Amino acid sequence: MERQSQRPGGRTAPPPSPNVASLVEAALHAHEAGRFDTADSIYREILALDPANTRALHYFGVLHYQRGQHEAAAILMSQALKHDRQDAACWSNRGLAAAALGRLDEATICYDQALQLQPNFADARNNFGVALQAQGAFNEAVEQYRLAIASNPALVDAHLNLGTALGKLGRFAEALACYRNALQLDPASAEAHFNAGNAHNARGEHEAAVASFERALALRPDYAEAHVNLGSAIGKRGDYAGAEAHYRRAVELKPNPTNLVCMGGALGAQGRLAEEERFYREALAQDPNYADAHQNLAWLLLKQGDYRQGWAEFARRWRKSDYEALAVPGVAEWHGEPLEGRRLLIVGEQGFGDHFQFLRYARVLHERGATVDVCVREPLLRLAQRVPGVRRAFAGKPAAQYDFWVPMMSVPSCVGTELATIPAELPYLFADTAKVEAWRKKLHTGGNARRRVGLVWAGSPTFGNDRYRSMALADLHPLAGAANVSWYALQKGPAHAQLADAPQALREHDFSGELHDFDDTAALVMNLDLVIAVDTAVAHLAGALGKPVWLLLPANSDWRWLQARSDSPWYPGMRLFRQQVLGEWSGLVSEVVQALGGLEQV
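Above: the chain sequence. Below: its structure as tokens.
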């Protein structure tokens, strides 16, 4: 948050009569001492005696500003400036009132006027920077903050604001230097520690972020924003109970929608679904359009199997920027209108697994009479083009004309999907037949009757719950003892390196270097008997190809796997293995080993 400052300076009005002058000094003394009611009374007395007293008008305006009465403040300061247009401090404070009213262009004019009168007025420079930053002019704001610091190196607010603006520009190392400068000037600045925590977090320095937020709270225990950000930081390392404690305190201090949603999310991560919902409902009671609350509530309802309400909430998940990034200009969004003879574009969203799960709806919409195109991410093009019902798959911006477009994950709400009506006709993804045959020849081992099982143990480390949905390959080492199984590593990404330390049986067949895209992976999977995977795109790919999948789920599994079920209505034939304790894989792996033993009898 940018900090504005009110440190009056500049030219004063002509000296008033001795009686009024003493009243002005008394009013200012009471004002500076925080005795606002006394100051208010004296300012009124002065203006009754001398309605044109510029100092009384100016600082009575400041008093109104401090009380949050910004329109009255602006009027009083404007009256003061009518009588003395050379008062730089009044221009600066008049800018503060304009900014508080959301009139940022007016505020910048006021600050500029103050600086023309007094170019070294550091507070006006700082406030000018705040107004520019609020308009998104971050580079210009940086320049003003630097000029403010040049005029007054001890102005802590300017150091803090400079750091914030640099952070907005992604220059986090420079931002941290600004916060260190602020702390040298004011070691007790909770805000400097808080901002430093945000910069550390942006740089991926999570432990440093935690330390900074903790120092901010040691200095200011009622700092609600620091409680929220500390809760988020420790939640990332899996301490959801600790996160809950900080979110709960933040809700006590400021029960705003953001804090309420964070609190609900911490409860949900601990599997306390019965307690979770009310926090999202409370957030939506305050702000019916709060996207994060709609999204979290949707996930909760869908996980509970309430698809009617869940999809309705999910349709309201959009933040403005996310929606605008997907929307097709000049084309109406489809909400369930008749599709016979219409051209419809499905626009993919979110992760690869989400694409694989929801591409099934192309066939549903085609059967309703639509000509269906899909816009997906580049690595999915060849697979998407072979989905039944798809006329054309492409990446990038649409060039053709359409009657409607629809976000891919909004289709279930538009067609009224219930648990019993999930379109689960498999397969709906198809591998390239030439590649399938090439893999068949490569894997052919004569009369070997061993079962071929693909293995994926980790997803993308950037995914929010990856700490818990992914596992270390070492947790799966007991699988190496399974009889009559040949293991095929399908793992890509950083976790593939764990294969080097795995038992020989698990690394015997590693073709991952030949899997350049999902089309290659699909062709290999078609030559396997089973895929065992954590909740990643490969699990969805194998399921959509109609191959048997055993899915290994954390205790806080994703909404799409429902609760307590060992099967999935999305992928008939998929078997779900669930953790009983978050982060504890050994029991689940034992179940998988036992299930593999059962395969030997088949």
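Residues 18-169 form a domain with the Serine Threonine Protein Phosphatase 5, Tetratricopeptide repeat fold (CATH 1.25.40.10).
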